[in-house]
Amino acid sequence: MDWQGQKVVELWMQVMLLVFAVVAFVTGYITASFRTMMLIYAGGVVFTSLVTVPNWPFFNRHPLKWLDPSEAEKHPKPQPQAVASKDKKKSSKK
């Protein structure tokens, strides 16, 4: 799954769980049944999981292009530069 697919999945998951929560609450309130509310919400969680957890092909529409190892050797990784701290400067003046 690519980065854009992860973003879409995250959005779908939030929207679907919210919709199922609202539907479950309203249904449970109307029928005055906590059990019905929980069953509807649990079914929504299972359905949401089945839609969002597997790596479906439509979540991989923008695959990443990685460098070949030979190409990576041509472009060396930048080395971090050492920064002199203020404590060292103060101690050297004494």
UniProtKB/TrEMBL annotation:
InterPro entries for this protein: Spc1/SPCS1
Keyword set, alphabetical order: Endoplasmic reticulum, Membrane, Transmembrane, Transmembrane helix
Any one annotated GO CC term: signal peptidase complex
GO biological process entries: protein targeting to ER; signal peptide processing
One Pfam family this sequence matches: SPC12
Annotated TM spans: 12-32, 39-59
Localization of this protein: Endoplasmic reticulum membrane
Ranges where the record places region Disordered: 69-94
Membrane topology: Multi-pass membrane protein
Similarity-based family: Belongs to the SPCS1 family.
PANTHER family in the cross-refs: MICROSOMAL SIGNAL PEPTIDASE 12 KDA SUBUNIT (PTHR13202), SIGNAL PEPTIDASE COMPLEX SUBUNIT 1 (PTHR13202:SF0)
Role this protein plays: Component of the signal peptidase complex (SPC) which catalyzes the cleavage of N-terminal signal sequences from nascent proteins as they are translocated into the lumen of the endoplasmic reticulum. Dispensable for SPC enzymatic activity.
Record-given protein name: Signal peptidase complex subunit 1
Organism: Salix udensis
Taxonomic path: Eukaryota, Viridiplantae, Streptophyta, Embryophyta, Tracheophyta
